[in-house]
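PROTEIN DESIGN WORKSHEET
SECTION A - STRUCTURE
LENGTH: 334
TOKENS:
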């Protein structure tokens, strides 16, 4: 089995805590060959833990020709320009979200990847969320009937004062938390169309100038309406997921789901009557079911990261396509 060599730019919360940890867990598929970080303690930690080379400046990676890909986990405003540098230097690139803020940035990255014949992919680990995959399965099965509306509410109450509250660093809830659930929403709505979008944003409790409250509505004929909230102003957060269907509905969160539905063959259509006194109870027979996060997936943040890197390995070695495509990422940015 081929072992892929990874380089990682950044060894902070994301580069070390998410990416390096996931890659190191898949020791039969990857080795961490090199990292970069301007903070000496982080470099020393990585060198000791992963037995890798550690550089102060990420441009030192450009002198190497043994890396199968490089992961860009720098702050959000550096995702696009540094990924462009990496592609131009001839590397395959895994970029943290958001890969870009503007369509023009995304198009430049795609053009460069094509020109250099290199892979550019984006870290969207929530594509592998067990709860999301179950919801997608249920909608596609038709058991809930036609999906009329999907609500996703990634809400809490919190105050932040770090760099991710600043617009100049591409901060704010839409670009920080948003890509996870916007990606899920577009998967449920369909990635073959560009929906009509209405969005309201507000900056309430964050110390910076970026938004910490987002309400986004997406619609398109023949597709479910998407109601997406990403708010840090919700003291009483409700269930993360709700699905409204013509034959039933679903509610739940990342660890549990429940749904109820009726069977159309047991509920014949009722003709329209003008005399309202003739209308009685519908007496639908409801069926109910539940899903819980399996024990082996209980630590689901590392689980999703490992799923992403398992798919990445399969794609690089030719046994599966990349789960996250550039066309899908461009739709999200646009």
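SECTION B - SEQUENCE
RESIDUE ASSIGNMENT:
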């Amino acid at each position: 089995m081929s072992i892929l060599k990874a380089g990682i730019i950044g060894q902070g919360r994301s580069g070390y805590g998410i990416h390096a940890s996931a890659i190191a867990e898949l020791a039969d598929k990857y080795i961490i060959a090199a990292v970069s970080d301007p903070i000496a303690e982080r470099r020393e930690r990585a060198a000791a833990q992963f037995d890798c080379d550690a550089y102060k400046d990420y441009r030192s990676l450009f002198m190497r020709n043994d890396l199968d890909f490089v992961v860009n986990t720098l702050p959000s405003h550096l995702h696009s320009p540094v990924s462009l540098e990496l592609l131009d230097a001839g590397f395959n690139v895994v970029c943290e979200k958001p890969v870009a803020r503007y369509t023009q940035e995304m198009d430049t990255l795609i053009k460069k990847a094509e020109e250099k014949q290199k892979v550019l992919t984006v870290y969207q680990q929530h594509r592998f969320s067990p709860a999301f995959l179950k919801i997608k399965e249920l909608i596609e099965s038709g058991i809930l009937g036609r999906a009329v509306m999907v609500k996703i509410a990634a809400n809490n109450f919190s105050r932040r004062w770090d760099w991710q509250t600043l617009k100049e660093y591409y901060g704010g809830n839409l670009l920080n938390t948003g890509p996870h659930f916007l990606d899920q929403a577009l998967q449920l709505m369909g990635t073959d169309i560009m929906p009509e979008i209405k969005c309201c944003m507000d900056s309430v409790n964050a110390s910076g100038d970026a938004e910490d409250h987002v309400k986004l509505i997406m619609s398109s004929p023949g597709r479910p309406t998407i109601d997406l909230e990403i708010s840090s102003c919700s003291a009483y957060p409700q269930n993360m997921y709700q699905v409204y269907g013509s034959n039933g509905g679903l509610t739940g969160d990342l660890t549990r789901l429940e749904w109820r539905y009726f069977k159309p063959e047991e509920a014949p259509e009722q003709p329209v009557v003008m005399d309202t006194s003739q209308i009685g109870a519908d007496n639908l027979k409801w069926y109910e079911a539940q899903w819980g996060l399996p024990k082996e997936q209980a630590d689901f943040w590392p689980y999703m990261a490992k799923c992403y890197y398992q798919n990445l390995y399969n794609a690089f070695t030719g046994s599966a396509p990349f789960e996250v495509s550039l066309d899908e990422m461009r739709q999200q940015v646009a």
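SECTION C - NOTES
The first helix runs from residue 15 to 25.
The chain has two domains: 4-123+301-333, 130-253+256-292.
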